Amino acid sequence: MTNGQSGILTIDNSTRSVLAWSVIALVVVGGMIGTYFVDMDTYIWLGTEDEFGENMTAVFYFVAGILLVLHSRGEMKDGSTLVKQSLPILLGLFFLFIAAEEISWGQRILGFGTPESMQSINRQGEFTIHNLGLFDKEGAIIDHYRATHLFVLFQGILLPLAYRFWPFARRTMNRVNFPVVPLACVGFFVLSMVHVQLTKYMGSQWFHMEVRELMFSMGFFVFAIAVYRKTNRLE
Fold first, then answer.
1. Is residue 13 assigned to a domain?
2. Are the beta carbons of 56 and 102 closer than 8 angstroms?
């Protein structure tokens, strides 16, 4: 266990923690997939804009962002520097940005309209960046769906595995204070990627990605808790 903490729900790189959180991830993701076949209306509801699923995605990312920023603030109070905490802070701000994008920066909550200049180039006519034509699937510079999957693949799966099993990668990440995801969280991202493959046989529908984003956000929420508790690194 890291930092002297113990318990089956500790979020770290120990075998016990990895197994426990992998089971939790399997129940969550398996439950999502099972809902598609048992109660498709509920599944679609989870993937519908401004409904429970999208709102929870925003909440998970928002809290994750706050936890990362608070962690770095605490580290700087204890003598760390802004430079050393730059990567956790940037990731925290990125999560806050995603949360704001999920709710269109509060557009429907606050009731403000989309500027005409943006409405004409936004695929959904919203006050969002990820729906701009530059990031749309049709002729995009980079499709935001693929960008999301690549981010999850590297941040949530490949880099944590490299940190655990490749000493050079571990030394490098520790040196730059990279916000590494503990192995306990990897199950969320691996199983979400399984969902990516399964949806090819479940019908290519818009709501699959929204459900998947909810699962991604859960994984990053648990990861942020580990960073805040300082249990995400190997001792």
1. no
2. no
pTM, to two decimals: 0.85
Query: What span, in angstroms and rounded, lies between the C-alpha atoms of 94 and 100?
Result: 10
Residue type, 33: I
Q: Residue 37 domain-assigned?
A: yes
Q: Is 235 helix (H, G, I), strand (E, B) or coil?
A: coil
The 10 Å CB-count burial string (b at 16+, else e) for 42-73 is: ebbebbebeeebbebbbebbbbbbbbbbebbe
214 within domain boundaries? yes
Q: Does 137 reside within a domain? A: no
| Domain that includes residue 60, residue range | 27-106+143-229
In this prediction, residue 102 carries a pLDDT of 80
At 122, give phi and psi (nearest 5°): -100, 125
Alpha carbon distance 181, 139 (integer Å): 33
Residue 40's alpha-carbon distances to 22, 131, 216, in angstroms, are 25, 26, 20
Task: Count Cα atoms within 13 angstroms, Cβ side, for 4.
Answer: 0
Q: What is the pLDDT of residues 33-76, one digit of tens each?
A: 999 999 989 998 988 877 788 889 999 999 999 999 999 999 99
Instruction: List the structure tokens of 90.
Output: 């940037």
User: Per-residue DSSP letters for 121-144?
Assistant: TBTTSSS-STTBGGGSSTT-SS-H
| Among 107, 1, 99, CA closest to 54 | 99
In total, how many domains does the chain have? Answer: 1
